[in-house]
């Protein structure tokens, strides 16, 4: 059976999608989870893009134990040098060099002739290979390139030492039969292509990224580039969970498999949602809320009689466990630890204590604490960030006939309490956010998104707020979960500000 390598680009192409930007510590958490998931390559970022990207790639390279860590680089010496500087300490470093090969990209974007592209490819791939043993070359917009010319460029990249050749459908234009034939044609027309890994990278503009990637596998590709939940530029990239589960479920068709520990899929998807605040649609294949739900009576009856009547894969195979133990206010720390373990979370002693304390408060307010509630508490700890400002207290005077006032007190890094009182005719959130902005001296950031969600149903449900702020073109997320929605909103805003300060400090430290 063929082994298909999984090249995960959640932290690079995925992060380029609107609303999905992550700071350094969030990227580090995501990278650790991708390593646990068993991906072969983690594309950690585009090191030259910004000091923040560089620091994130370098940080990930330092901690990832199993997967290769790649940085993207244009075919420019300064890009390759920066990418190498960022990944060189990785256990398995990879340089990912790209250059467009379609006429439209060469003429309008690169302003280079075919000869210049061929020369640049040879020089830059050779240069990358002089630094690193593992070099991937991507022919950007490959699927819309002139086939003969593309084959010449690919041949040059192989001669120059590239070990992986990637043939992207950059604009998501291909359809499955066409893309499969395209891969077969390149394989048939390039000498020594069987000595390198042939990779595919599909975008989902026409909703065909998964199908195109799988057709490529049927025609000789042995690496798929993809992202968790399918996030990515425009309509996104091939969804990791879809190609992995398709290969696993239809081995009879593909005769291929991956090294992914599929029981980590659900957890990885949830972590990404918790970090970015971007939810997957309920009917999303594999990881959507309804992917394993059987609503109609006929289906339920069939599944109860024999699961396989309507289920082609088990929820357990992606790490969704049926869990009968319900926790409530009488449950102890051991029961909580046990439950978290069953849900796939391993938490340290200190974290367990903190989660337990919050669990007790919640259990006091709610009759029972659901898996979703617990997951929200755990994510709150996992994505905990360094707090430059801590919320001490807030008091809001609100009503539909008065101007709202909010008094907020924060504790700053020196341990000093700072307090501001502001009023607003727009209500408690606006009043509190103005007070917080005053306290942190925030002239250089703005609120760009505010999302409220209920973790479970009922008026006693925990409210989850995700706030996005923008500063110097970068987006910072803040999350908070609380039974009081206004408190969640206040905490989420402070968290976003802390995230921004922390990220700036990390970048400054290099
Ligand atoms: O879509 C694309 O072509 C890319 C390349 C840089 C690999 O993301
Ligand atoms: Zn892409």
Short description:
By secondary structure, the chain is of the alpha/beta class. 42% of the residues lie in helices and 19% in strands.
Q: How does this structure look, described?
A:
The protein is an alpha/beta fold and 510 residues long. The chain has three domains: 275 residues, TIM Barrel (Alpha-Beta Barrel); 62 residues; 121 residues, Alpha-isopropylmalate synthase LeuA, regulatory domain (Double Stranded RNA Binding Domain, 2-Layer Sandwich). Helices cover 42% and strands 19% of the residues. The protein contains 17 helices and 16 strands. The strands form four sheets. The chain has an eight-stranded parallel barrel with strand order 2-3-4-5-6-7-8-9, surrounded by eight helices. Strands 11-12-13 form a three-stranded antiparallel beta sheet, with helices on one face. It has a three-stranded antiparallel beta sheet with strand order 14-15-16. Strand 14 and strand 15 form a beta hairpin. Helix 5 packs parallel to helix 6, helix 7 runs parallel beside helix 8 and helix 16 runs parallel beside helix 17. It starts with a strand and ends with a helix. The model has no long low-confidence stretch (mean pLDDT 93). Bound molecules: 3-methyl-2-oxobutanoic acid and zinc ion (ZN). The site of 3-methyl-2-oxobutanoic acid has 9 residues, from strand 6.
């Amino acid at each position: 059976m063929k082994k298909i390598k999984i090249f995960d680009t959640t932290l690079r192409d995925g992060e380029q999608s609107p609303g999905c930007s992550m700071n350094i510590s969030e990227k580090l958490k995501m990278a650790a989870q991708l390593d646990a998931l068993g991906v072969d390559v983690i594309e950690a970022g585009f090191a030259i893009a910004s000091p923040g990207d560089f620091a994130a790639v370098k940080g990930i390279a330092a901690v990832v134990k199993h997967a290769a860590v790649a940085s993207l680089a244009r075919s420019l010496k300064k890009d390759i040098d920066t990418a190498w500087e960022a990944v060189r300490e990785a256990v398995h470093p990879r340089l990912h060099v790209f250059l467009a090969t379609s006429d439209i990209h060469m003429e309008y974007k690169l302003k280079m002739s075919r000869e210049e592209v061929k020369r640049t490819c040879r020089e830059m791939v050779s240069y990358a290979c002089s630094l690193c043993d593992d070099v991937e070359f991507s022919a950007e917009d490959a699927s819309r390139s002139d086939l003969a010319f593309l084959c010449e460029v690919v041949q040059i990249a192989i001669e120059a030492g590239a070990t992986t050749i990637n043939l992207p459908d950059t604009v998501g234009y291909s359809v499955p039969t066409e893309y499969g034939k395209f891969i077969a044609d390149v394989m048939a027309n390039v000498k020594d292509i069987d000595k390198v890994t042939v990779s595919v990278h599909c975008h989902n503009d026409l909703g065909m990224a998964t199908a195109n990637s799988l057709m490529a596998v049927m025609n000789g590709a042995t690496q798929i580039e993809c992202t968790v939940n399918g996030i990515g530029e425009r309509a996104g990239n091939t969804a990791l969970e879809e190609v992995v589960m398709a290969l696993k479920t239809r081995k009879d068709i593909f005769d291929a498999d991956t090294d992914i520990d599929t029981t980590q899929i659900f957890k990885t998807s949830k972590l990404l949602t918790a970090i970015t605040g971007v939810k997957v649609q309920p009917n999303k294949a594999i990881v959507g809320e309804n992917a394993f739900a059987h609503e109609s009576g006929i289906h339920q009856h069939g599944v109860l009689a024999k699961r396989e009547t309507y289920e082609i894969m088990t929820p357990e195979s992606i790490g969704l466990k049926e869990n009968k133990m319900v926790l409530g206010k009488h449950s102890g720390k051991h029961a909580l630890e046990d439950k978290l373990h069953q849900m796939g979370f391993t938490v340290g002693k200190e974290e367990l204590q903190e989660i337990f304390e919050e669990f007790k408060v919640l259990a006091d307010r709610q009759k029972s604490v659901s898996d979703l509630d617990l997951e929200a508490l755990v994510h709150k700890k996992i994505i905990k960030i360094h707090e430059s400002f801590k919320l001490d207290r807030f008091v809001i005077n609100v009503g539909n006939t008065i101007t709202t006032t909010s008094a907020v007190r924060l504790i700053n890094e020196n341990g000093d309490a700072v307090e501001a009182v502001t009023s607003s005719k727009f209500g408690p959130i606006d009043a509190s956010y103005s007070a917080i902005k005053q306290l942190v001296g925030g002239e250089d950031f703005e609120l760009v998104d505010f999302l409220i969600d209920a973790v479970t149903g009922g008026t006693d449900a925990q409210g989850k707020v995700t706030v996005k702020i923008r500063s110097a073109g970068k987006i910072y997320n803040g999350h908070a979960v609380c039974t009081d929605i206004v408190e969640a909103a206040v905490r989420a805003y402070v968290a976003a500000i802390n995230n921004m300060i922390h990220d700036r400090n990390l970048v400054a430290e290099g």
